[in-house]
Amino acid sequence: MSPPATRITRLRLTQFRSYEAAELRSEADTVVLLGLNGAGKTNVLEAISLLTPGRGLRRAALDQLPYRHDGVKADGWAVSAVLAGTYGDVTLGTGQEPDPTGEARARRCRIDGEPVGSAAAFADFVRVIWLTPEMDGLFSGPPAERRRFLDRLVLAVDAEHGARVNALERALRARNRLLEDTRTDPRYLDAVEQELAALSVAVAAARLETVRRLASGITAGRDDGSAFPWATLALDGAIERELAYLPATQVEDGYRAVLREARPRDRAAGRTLEGAHLSDLMVGHGPKAMPAAQGSTGEQKALLIGLILAHARLVAEMAGMSPVMLLDDVVAYLDPSRREALFATLHALGGQVWMTGADPAAFAALPRDAERFSVSPGRIASIPD
Question: Residues annotated as binding site for ATP?
């Protein structure tokens, strides 16, 4: 039996990206956004992705999000969604309020109109995961992209992980600044390195636990004949290797000693050369027993889809609710048999799915209750059955 599903039944965009004002209502498990390239389909998915901690599926800066018309940027933006789930109807809202002073403004978040500290509070009501074309080169790209991907996987099951990662990045910058000045009192470095060690171990432990759980779930559901091959997963990093057999406090003490000894080397390099900020997610093609990066483009695409589907199952298990899935232009590059397999798997997962595409024929195999919308610049309209 699938965990309870949360569904977005109403989505409202105000001065967001290409939309001055738009509203979409749907009770469907599957929502398809159809339109030409550049029509604004991905903007809708991005709006939904902002109902999670972090910067959304494009990782955009806040000043990139306001609506623009004739070169003039709107003052403020808002995304509001009504969710139907375990707690009944709940309204989540996020955005930037207009500010006549013109000063930089923080992103605001509200639940049923009441302010909350951050989007981490939304995790009680909805979990959102996504797959975009920009992720296609994940396995052959730089380690930083895989770390970012992994942190998003962790964030979907641990809403506080983003705050830890941000704190780790701040601590790294603080240490690097102190190392620039050879006259820095070593006691300042001791204090920063103590914080950096604690954060590094906490981030590494959260990543390691998510990878362990995800790998366990993949093993339990292994199917060598699946259209989406199963993946092998491992973390490559000194801290992660030590956490596999040592207590966290001992690993933290050891890393703090490494940082102290490495000060001259790191000062010369201008950065910290060892730590969780440099770890890599190693992904393999299970059925073929080879690194994912060695697979063909099609194999890597299928493997990535399989990994995202496995992650959706993990989120449902750990959060007690099926996640909302955002699949941006995913089906266009699948053959008909893989499309049908994907649609069947999504249906079995039980959560709400939002998909985009330019060709209506690519979605012909969807269930009859799937709802389709036409997207054109600045407009969203339901397509009658």
Answer: 35-42
